[in-house]
Design a protein that fits this description.
This protein is of the alpha/beta class. The protein contains 13 helices and eleven strands. α2 packs across α10 and α8 packs parallel to α9. It is globular.
Length: 342
Amino acid sequence: MRRITPQEAIELLEGDLLTLGKKAYEVRKDLHPDKRVTFCVDRNINYTNVCVSRCRFCAFWRDEKDPEAFLLPKEEIFKKIEETLALEGTSILIQGGLHPHLDISYFEDLFSSIKARYPIHIHGLSPPEIYHIAQGSGLTLEETIERLKAAGLGSIPGGGAEILSPRIREHLSPKKVKTEGWLEVMETAHRVGLRTTATMMFGHIEEAQDIVEHLERIRNLQDKTEGFTAFIPWTFQPPNTELEHIEKATAVEYLKVLALSRIYLDNIPNIQASWVTQGAKIAQIALYFGANDFGSTMIEENVVASAGAIFRMTKEEIAHCIREAGFSPAQRNTLYQLIREF
């Protein structure tokens, strides 16, 4: 199939919803001819909300001296992992703010302590965190990722991408890693043998060309490394942020971007539906707009919840949603290896 160009992508995004959705569903069927829709059982563990980045779109961060600031003790993290394992979870997504005083030794100790105690996959530390750790520890990105991997890091989430347009990032998060730095972290991780996901947070100040620029950068890096397992587009949640005056993106806008992502990212096998921000019904519809994965149960989630998105679903509820939409649910692990069919 011929790849679409950036200009064609913009035209699709600005065109008819159902035409775009139909094209995306055809691509999804080519890549995943069965009716299987996967999901995993995991928990988000946000180890700290202390962050020097202070992104304008974030409702989660706190200054170090804020009374609501926290850094979870290891014992509490261990308890959360035990609860996750009791619910048949296979991984933890561990990420937090850019804490000014946590260098690589903190994470080496934490990860090695977790792996010594529990049979669980650590999916952790978004590119901004890894970049921040490297700078604070006086290490190269490769040294940092190699050491984290040796301590037990199993894969890296795609957070902190927002929109990979320098113009947009300068407005939304001027203190956070730049576009090229985010991509460099991911390329380095792929080179040393770690798989990662990629994300996009949209529905704020971006325009159609910014969305397509983001997709183009992700597609180009995947051509080079083949290290992304999945792509997850999700919508900005305005409440409690500096940008709370912005009107929340509609379900139609979400489905358009999701569908375009499936068409444009022809080299990434999986596209996740974001029920956490959209709710179960729109996530079901997303399965007909290119998505083949339902994300995770997210036993705990704090960052998006702090901006007012509080959708929750159990493993059984997710399986029911998938089946109700006309697909076959299957549990996977973080690396997209199947565990069981429902």
